[in-house]
Amino acid sequence: MTIRIGLVGCGNVSAKYLATVGGAPGVELVACADQDAERAQVVGAEFGIPVLASVEELLALPEVDLVLNLTAPRAHAEVSLAAIAAGKHVYSEKPLATTLEDGIRVVEAADRAGVRVGCAPDTILGEGLQATAKLIADGAVGRPLSAISILATTGPEHFHPAPEFLYLEGAGPLFDIGPYLVSALTFLLGPVRAVTATTAMPVETRTVRVGGHAGETFSAAVPTFISSMLEFESGAVATLLQGWDVVGTTAPRLEIHGTGGSIAGPSPDSWGGPLRLMRVGDHGFAEVMPTGSAGSRLGIGVLEMAAALEAGEAPAASGEQGLHTLAILQAILRSANSGQRVSP
Length: 344
Prior knowledge:
- By secondary structure, the protein is an alpha/beta fold.
- The chain contains ten helices and 16 strands.
């Protein structure tokens, strides 16, 4: 069985997805669409996608089994709901939606229609986080007690030629970086029961650094620094920090601490290592997995979903996982706005 994929959204991230998905066994790219027809033509030509269509035409194609939704965040729910209404499975770039209400609508609509929803990030399928989960399950750190995860950079204007949309409502580091941290931690430690958070905007005016618009400035419309604490149903707690105002940091990308040891894990936005372990009585961390050279494997969640569809199973990077992640991110925002501890 080959899962035939229609791509909606041919922007900057599509090339990274298609480098993984294009030509992979079990899937076939049959159509692509974008509001910018010229952009769709470029992507279609580069990756040998035979059908160029409008979004409406793509969703009506009977040969499309799965819609790969790589639109801007504000369009995620709209496109996913339209695909589901057309009887298509959907794999969405993060976040699942920009509001919790829309995320619920997507998951419930898919359930009623009898189709599956998958959602990025798919880094939980990478060797690094899979190995981290196995160490925890095998009792390497005893009972997990706490975690810390920090992803702070200079912001997407340093590599993206048109980054303004990433600073609009429903985006920003909370919804762009946050899904990596939150999905990794819930994958490793389970569901979250409450959050406490604060946000800031240290740098409001941003400058595009690359591409044809380099030198142009724009204003951020959302917080660019978020600090939060997650309380898990298991009793563990985690501290998260994410932002786009930092030149560099040596802070831990991911650490898990337990009654019997600690894991210095891979970055939540990576698919490989490094991974180190220190147990009670050890004099330091020992390497379990080297950094490796896997690089970006963005799109392995699409391939895993295709295999799951063939087996009649739910994808690992599922819509339900995406919805829980979205609920936590929205709770972080509510907590920061209210100054209160809130539940997802």
